[in-house]
Amino acid sequence: MGSRQSRCESFQKKECNHVCVAIEQCQITCPALAILADPMRGAALKPDGLDALEAYVPQLEAVHIDGAGHNIRREQFARYMEVVRNFLDKVAVIA
Q: Minimal CA–CA distance to 61: which of 93, 28, 87?
């Protein structure tokens, strides 16, 4: 078996509506963006999953896109691109 599986087995994990956070190994320090959709339309990341991510990635910027479900970029492409471009513009200024 690969070392990836053995490493994954050793992580302490917390399940949050299909989001698995490797609590001990989370060391994301760069700017991060979470694009959220409507849970009633099939969004993969639920509010408690976002709470878990924000706890370990404090610089996380979360943006909700109304009217989108699981496939955000296909369902709300223009808004998706606006959110991504705005985030990248901010990150470029920071860097």
A: 87
Pairing label, strands 32-36, 60-64: parallel
What backbone phi and psi angles, to 5 degrees, belong to 33?
A: -125, 130
Q: Could you say which residues of the chain have pLDDT below 50?
A: 1-19, 23
pTM: 0.68
| Count of other CB atoms within 10 angstroms of residue 18 | 10
| Strands, E assignment, the chain | 13-16, 19-22, 32-36, 60-64
Residue type, 11: F
**Number of structural domains in the chain:** 1
Domain of 42 in residue numbering reads as: 3-94
